[in-house]
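re: that complex we talked abt at group meeting.

here r the seqs, copy pasted straight from the sheet so there may be weird spacing, ignore it
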Amino acid sequence: MDLYFWVFASMSVLAGLFTIAARDALPSAMGLLTVFIALASLYLHLHAPLIAIFQVAIYAGAILILVVFVIMLLMAPGERLAAIQANVSYRGAGALLGLCLIGLVAVGTKGVSEIVSMKALPEGFGNPSMFGDLFFRDFLLHFEVVSVLLLVALIGGIYLCKKKL
Amino acid sequence: MASLTHYIVLSSILFGLGTIGFCTRRNALILFMSIELMLNAANLMLVAFSNFMADMAGQVMVIFIFAVAAAEVAVGLAILIVLFRHVREVDITKFNVLKW
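got the structure back, here u go
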């Protein structure tokens, strides 16, 4: 029984449920924050400490703060309760779709763990120096392309927020 | 020790939750957060496979997903702010100018 996995897995699923079920956007964002932290803890368990740090710094620290800023800037009201209740069939269809997806993945990946979980981890797997070595040698071109993507997104964001569009 | 199947099922549950949220909510900000949930489910799957196959490339892919998520949020929220200036609403059913 792997307690560490179960604690953080249930935490992430419950917080994910809260994220999509909360009436207002701000509690929903707090639920998402909990999901990020729980997943970062699971990454530590999976020999990915650098990814765990990036998860907290980039997702929880930058992306979510941006979302929270926009929520507070817009001060939009939550969904009316009547609108939520009128939407039950719509919600049922969405829930059915999601459950089908989960079932499909569970059936489709049956037996995968027997195939792949054979290899032993090499010495120093997941430490930042090994990561950087791979990242800046084998994936250098990809890294540059992504930096252009971020630049384009930056310019797009600034352009869209001009006073007169 | 949790097996790869545990992580696959957890990841698909999170992805399914994101899908349900995206299909059923009407608040545009919550739709954004549902997308983030789906991206995180994909990240978890990549890291889990990276660990169980002893291949670091999965972790590098996660960094690229981080970059894509950051770009998506920056542009998406900018579009949302512009829309809000026109419509004064974040309910996606109110954005119906292009609706036939």
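couple things i noticed - Chain B touches chain A through 71 residues (CB under 8 Å). DSSP finds three helices and no strands in chain B.
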